[in-house]
């Protein structure tokens, strides 16, 4: 059961994870997630979140050539 609306069911899906970091939008497509079929709430497994953080920290180096507005980080496929 969905913990947010308590009505819908969570189903396995892939979502695009986005996070702002110092004015830059970090986009990670195709991240495994669970999505509510009622309210579309997206939940990430703690293991997935941990891996996301590792990915993002590895990517978040100061840019030498100026900032882009958006950066896409690819989720490593198994
Ligand atoms: Zn829901």
Strand and helix map with partners:
Elements: E1 10-21, E2 24-36, E3 42-43, H1 46-59, E4 70-72
Parallel strand pairs: 2-4
Antiparallel strand pairs: 1-2, 2-3
The structure holds zinc ion.
Zinc ion binds at residues 2, 4-5, 8, 36, 38-39, 41.
Describe the structure.
This protein is α+β, with helices and mostly antiparallel strands. The protein is 18% helix and 38% strand. It has a domain at 10-62: Ubiquitin-like (UB roll), CATH 3.10.20. Strands 1, 2, 3 and 4 form a four-stranded mixed sheet that branches. A hairpin with a 2-residue loop joins strand 1 and strand 2 (24-36). It is elongated and about 50 Å long. The two termini are 28 Å apart. The mean pLDDT is 88. It binds zinc ion. Residues 2, 4-5, 8, 36, 38-39, 41 line the site of zinc ion.
């Amino acid at each position: 059961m969905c913990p947010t609306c308590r009505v819908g069911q969570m189903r396995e899906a892939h979502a695009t994870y986005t996070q702002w970091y110092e004015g830059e939008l970090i986009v990670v497509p195709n991240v495994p997630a669970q999505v509510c079929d009622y309210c579309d709430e997206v939940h990430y497994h703690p293991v997935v979140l941990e891996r996301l953080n590792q990915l993002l920290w590895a990517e978040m180096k100061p840019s030498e050539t100026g900032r882009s507005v958006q950066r896409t980080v690819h989720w490593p496929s198994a």
